[in-house]
Specification:
mainly alpha
């Protein structure tokens, strides 16, 4: 007859509950936001000439050197912010997928910042496709916030924040 090897008397560790559908959808939206942000970085690099034209159009009194400096700064800034954005999207997808309560708050703050950046994008020279992409990224954020703050998701985050013994 088979007898299991004696253990410390504790059962197996508790299983992590599976994230509910809204959280899984939010995680997919976050990965989509990261992918769209990556497309935005590539577009910034491809559309350097368009950025120059947008700067000229916004302020025709700028010298060629000023336009070049503004173009280099604008593209470098957009690429750096884009790479940081990609990292934040992936980090938030990872943390929210694991039910980290703090991640909902951080994601909400980041969505607020993204909203401010979207509004500022309307005020600066931009390429039309870039603005559309910014809007699509913002919509991913909006969908994410709606999904992670609904009632079903809240129960999951609460269950995941309970101590495990």
């Amino acid at each position: 007859m088979y007898q299991p090897y004696p253990t410390s008397g504790q059962g197996p560790p508790p299983q992590r509950p599976e994230p509910p559908r809204p959280v899984r959808t939010a995680v997919k939206l976050m990965y989509t936001g990261a992918a769209l942000s990556a497309v935005g970085v590539v577009l910034e690099l491809v559309a350097i000439g368009s950025v120059r034209n947008a700067i000229k159009k916004a302020d025709p009194s700028l010298t060629s050197a000023q336009i070049h400096n503004a173009e280099v700064f604008g593209v470098a800034f957009a690429v750096i912010i884009g790479l940081i954005g990609i990292g934040l999207w992936v980090w938030m997808a990872w943390a929210n997928g694991r039910g980290k309560s703090w991640a909902r708050v951080v994601a909400s703050v980041l969505f607020g910042l993204n909203t401010v950046f979207l509004l500022l994008a309307f005020a600066r020279p931009h390429v039309g496709i870039g603005l559309i992409l910014d809007l699509l990224v913002w919509l991913c954020g909006l969908g994410t916030i709606i999904m992670i703050w609904n009632k079903e998701s809240s129960g999951y985050y609460q269950a995941m924040s309970q101590p495990r013994y």
